[in-house]
Amino acid sequence: MVVERFAVEGAVRAAGARLSEDERSALAGYAAKATWPAGFTVYDGGSPADGVFVVLRGRIILRNRIKGGRGFVPVVAMPGETFGGEGLADNGVYATDARAEDDAATLHLGRARVRALVRERPQLAMALFGQMAAEHAALLERTRELVTQSVEQRLVSAILRAAETRADAEAGQPLTFDAGEYRLLCEMVGATRESVSLVVARLSASGLAKRSGGAVTVVAPERLADQLGGEPPEEREQSVPVATEEARPA
Questions:
Q1: How many Å apart are CA 84 and CA 82, to the nearest integer?
Q2: Among 145, 177, 202, where does a domain finish?
């Protein structure tokens, strides 16, 4: 298997679309600011939704719950990105759980404040809506990946996304995922940890990754797309949709 370069590059481009610091500062005049300690639940899926959130600091993990205690993470919202936009719909409800992965800060604009923003600062409102549209396009791309790509391809996209957004990532330097971050990576891929571990084993055999206990280190994330080797055809044919994968003990 050769990684589809257009898909990997598209994922990185989508991750770079964010509201500027000036735009976030201007939005603060219409919003309520909140800080969230690591691990704090911002909201639960299925609860009533109002307005939209903008991330100022940290990472907000959006997670769909799956049977067996597992989850699927469609979005990791970073500074300058939005989440919870379901709250702009009439009678909106949140489609996912939202949790602060680390110390985080957000702005929240309720529907009434969004209407005021549209009246008073239409250009700023368009920047906010344009950001939400870019994130919607990225989410559609994620859906395409789940349907058309192998676990290996999806893992590459998830690692490159992490390499761009994690504060400890440096260009050309190894990127380490501890046990908790590795679990998050598996949830971003949309596969069981067993499936992802098979891919990690192949990366290790190729010298692109190393395992140490529950941690995984990707030696050179930017070289993944160029140096990934072949994937057995039978594995590509047997990719299992995330919604139907059977949960197994970690």
A1: 7
A2: 145
